[in-house]
Design goal:
By secondary structure, this protein is of the alpha/beta class. The chain has helices at about 20-30, 40-50, 85-90, 100-105, 130-145, 175-180, 200-205, 205-220, 235-240, 295-310, 315-325, 355-360, 400-405, 415-425, 450-465; strands at about 10-15, 35-40, 65-70, 95-100, 120-125, 150-155, 170-175, 190-195, 225-230, 250-255, 265-270, 275-280, 280-285, 335-340, 345, 365-370, 390-395, 410-415, 435. The strands form three sheets. It has a nine-stranded mixed beta sheet with strand order 6-7-5-8-9-10-11-12-13, sandwiched between helices. Helix 5 crosses helix 10 (about 295-310), helix 5 (about 130-145) crosses helix 11 (about 315-325) and helix 14 crosses helix 15. The longest helix has 18 residues, at about 450-465.
Length: about 475
């Protein structure tokens, strides 16, 4: 655990008692704070009681004058579409509002570091798509080359549940826009911006607010090195804002699909090959085409981001290449489930928005596409341009008929995963891929995207075993 610093003797309100909230409460108590903890959900309050945490209904708190800080969980709105009443009350009383990420960055360093030969570092990864794979890949490379490393944030453990850093350790954090938008302290050594596509727009008040939440990691944090994906206008703009000149190598521009030129530092992938360029010269090159855990152009972008981040902390190209070859990928992200009868089964349940689903489709030819769920704002029209590989869509979800109506490819309204997988297998021919890439949230039928992916895997295994 990372004990919170600067809170000894203070009263701190903690709102939201999920994974990050419980972690924050424990860290604050370890740092000497008096914690007033609350969650609107009875189940979460019960779990907190079982964990030995005292509860205090913050919604009934009328006098905030003794509260020094309010720490809130990422999923709780503080501005758009409307601030939670407890957060509104804290802000009205002038009480600073923070989250576990801000507490972590203020508390990570310790006096033990005075005796280290090499100071610990933090690599923080944000973006719309690919941040989980990129974060896991960076962590994998670090551990493969023998560097001490921990992985946390939006993936793995809560940040305050990390162990205190050891000599030369590199902590890798995946940070969502919900986490970066509110953290009062953001000071990574290396910041990574993968890409930007519309998502969570109601929470951020539109695309500008969403980009602003991501940008805070770089504008507020001022990392020593910034790895920026420049395949969309937002990334090009951000890289330009962070650079003092064209040859400013504090910014490493990355791309999948385009050759990057100029006097600066670039890493790009084209036709399956990764190239590192610096001051107009090629420094290194490697073949990504046969890496099992990094199929498709979107994963090649992830490889470029991870490569650049690891180069920024001093790992050699050769060591990175060797580590990339052993990466097996993450569950529910372009995950190969089975190959049987000439068919390939891929689980990309994490493809919850249009851009990530389009990336998943682009990685394969002749696709039987399982999609559908709780639609996000904006409709499906932008996705139709990416449906060239799709032979037929098999649509699940409570609003499957409306989802299917918006698609330009042949489709079947299946509603359930069981029906969709069964029809896809029955109609598929050798050489085709049955791909789950929903392009929608899971919450109409499942608790989360992991549960949806697990259901897909179970149905595939059951039906293949019955053949």
């Amino acid at each position: 655990m990372i004990a919170a610093q600067g809170v000894s003797g203070l009263k701190v309100a903690v709102l939201g008692l999920g994974r990050s909230g419980l972690s924050a409460a424990r860290a604050l108590i370890a740092g000497g704070a008096e914690v007033l903890a609350w969650d609107d959900g009875e189940q979460a309050r019960g779990a907190a009681r079982d964990a030995g945490l005292a509860l205090s209904d913050l919604g009934r708190l009328r006098d905030w004058s003794e509260i020094a800080l309010c720490v809130v969980s990422p999923g709780i709105a503080h501005l758009y579409p409307k601030a939670h009443p407890v957060i509104a009350a804290a802000l009205a009383a002038g009480v600073p509002v923070d989250n576990d990420i801000g507490v972590f960055f203020r508390s990570f360093s310790s006096r033990a570091w005075d005796n280290f030969q090499s100071l610990p570092k933090i690599i923080a990864v944000t973006g719309s798509n690919g941040k989980s794979t990129t974060s896991a890949l960076i962590h994998h490379i670090l551990t493969q080359v023998g560097w001490p490393s921990q992985l946390a944030g939006n993936i793995g453990r809560g940040v305050l549940d990390l162990d205190p850093a050891t000599d030369g350790e590199v902590v890798v954090l995946e940070l969502s826009s919900y986490q970066t938008e509110l953290a009062r302290s953001l000071t990574p050594d290396v910041g990574v911006f993968t890409n930007l596509s519309p998502d969570h727009l109601d929470r951020h008040g539109g695309e500008g607010g969403y980009f602003a939440a991501k940008r805070r990691l770089f504008a507020e944090g001022g990392p020593d090195r910034a790895v920026i994906g420049v395949d969309e206008p937002a990334g090009i703009f951000l890289a330009g804002q962070l650079s003092e000149s064209a040859n400013d190598d504090r910014v490493i521009r990355i791309s999948s699909g385009q050759k990057l030129i100029g006097p600066g530092w670039q890493v790009y992938a084209r036709k399956g090959f990764l190239s590192e360029m610096r001051k107009g010269r090629q420094i290194a090159s490697m073949d990504l085409r046969d890496l099992p855990g990094l199929a498709g152009a979107h994963n090649h972008q992830n490889a470029c981001a991870a490569y650049a981040a690891c180069r920024a902390v001093g790992i050699s190209p050769k060591a990175i290449a060797e580590a990339l070859a052993s990466f097996q990928g993450l569950a529910h992200r372009s995950q190969l489930i089975a190959e049987e009868g000439g068919l390939r089964f891929i689980n990309d349940s994490k493809a919850t928005n249009l851009a990530s689903a389009a990336n998943a489709l682009a990685a394969f030819d002749k696709v039987r596409w399982i999609c559908g769920g709780l639609q996000k704002d904006g409709g499906l029209e932008p996705l139709n341009a990416a449906l060239r590989p799709v032979i037929k869509a098999y649509v699940i979800g409570r609003e499957a008929a409306e989802f299917a109506r918006q698609l330009s490819c042949p489709s079947a309204v299946c509603t359930t995963m069981q029906s969709a997988v069964a029809q896809a297998i029955e109609e598929a021919e050798p050489g085709e891929t049955i791909l789950l890439a929903p392009a929608a949230a899971s919450f109409d039928q499942y608790d989360n995207f992991e549960q949806r992916g697990d259901d897909f895997i179970a149905e595939v295994q059951r039906l293949l075993a019955a053949q």
